[in-house]
Amino acid sequence: MMEILNVISAYLFYIFYIILFYFSLKKCFLREGYSKVKLFFLSLLTNPFFLFMAMIYVSTAIVIILEVSKYDLDALDSVDWAYLATDQFYSSLIVLISSALYIVTILPISYLMGKSLKAFNRSMVMFVYIMFSVIIILFDDQHSGVFEDTGWIIYISDNLRNIICIIVLGLLYFFDIKALSKLSDKKRHLNWKLFLIAPTVFILSYTVLDYYTYTFSSDDAYGVVQILSYVIMVLFVWAFYIIINNIKATDDAVLAKEEVKTLSVEVMEALAHTIDAKDEYTRGHSVRVAKYSRMLAERLGLSSTECENVYYMALLHDIGKIGVPNEIINSTSKLTDDEYEVIKTHPGVGYDILAEIKSRPDLSIGARWHHERFDGKGYPDGKKGEEIPFFARIIAVADSYDAMTSNRSYRNYLPQDKVRSEIEKNSGSQFDPAVAKCMMEIIDQDKEYTMHE
Fold it and tell me: How many CA atoms are closer than 13 Å to the CA of 437, on its beta-carbon side?
């Protein structure tokens, strides 16, 4: 009766194993346009169970060849084939060789499978193969161990082993694979070492320990090895469940941060457009100044974060104009001294507005000091040289460039050679020489003069 139940439980495991392996690949890595039928046959062809059995046959052939090589061809009839089939040493040696061959084979096969499925993270495909491999290697071990003379007896039957493997297989799918499917479409890099080293080392360590305890030690020691192996496998499932969910939580946090960042940029751009809309001749001015400022920052060798920061500062550099009356901004005649004094208040107003943003106090830098001059004759604070924040010096050049290359009520945009000569002439007086030099290099590269309104 026990033997019949063992056959039934073994076949249940095989069926469950093959189905879950296919559904694991399908759930995590099936891409649009990829045939499910093709995937099913590929999952059968590369199934860890069939690959491991193939390695056992290869290892058996190797052991037989090594044993037969000891005999003369005329003496092959003297080989004790029954002994070779049943001896513990040879059977353990076969398992040892087959496991080593399997590890060498399964890693490139799983990698190529990931490439075939066009998986974004091929290490995830390899992880699925390795975890299923651990289970099949534990399942394939047909030995039983008995603790004797200890006052208590634990009998590990084949039936119990089959049931344990079915349970572990289910845990692997319902905890790790389902969680993994939420990461498999992520295009960002994942550390393959995190997923592959531990189970791969486990397979090798278990095989060696299994070989030595079963061949050279007692059933008691072997039984302990098996029990601990099942416990470690369950701990693997739980550990990787936590790891995968932590990675997903990190992804969600990064995505949320990116969404907030995108929203912030959109709000700043909308605000910049609103300010520019006060004057029909300055529409798009702030966005263009931000674009030119970032170009200058990149050419000056600033980091990507600094380039982003100067872009945001430049977007809002004119926010103070919100406090300037429309009739002054839209005046088509020369401004009176009083009107010019009102215009000169916009850096201070912009600074006061942006200083209220406690999470980004740097945004106010461009607003307050983009009208300072390198020679100290600017406003509102009369700063000079390196007293002026570097980002404000960048924005000052970009702001002046856009003013000269944009249409105004009293003139069209200036010719490119005229713009370049003005920047060169004012280098060291109005503009920081280093920034002015970069602006001239950008102008020289703009052969078709596309950088204008």
Answer: 6
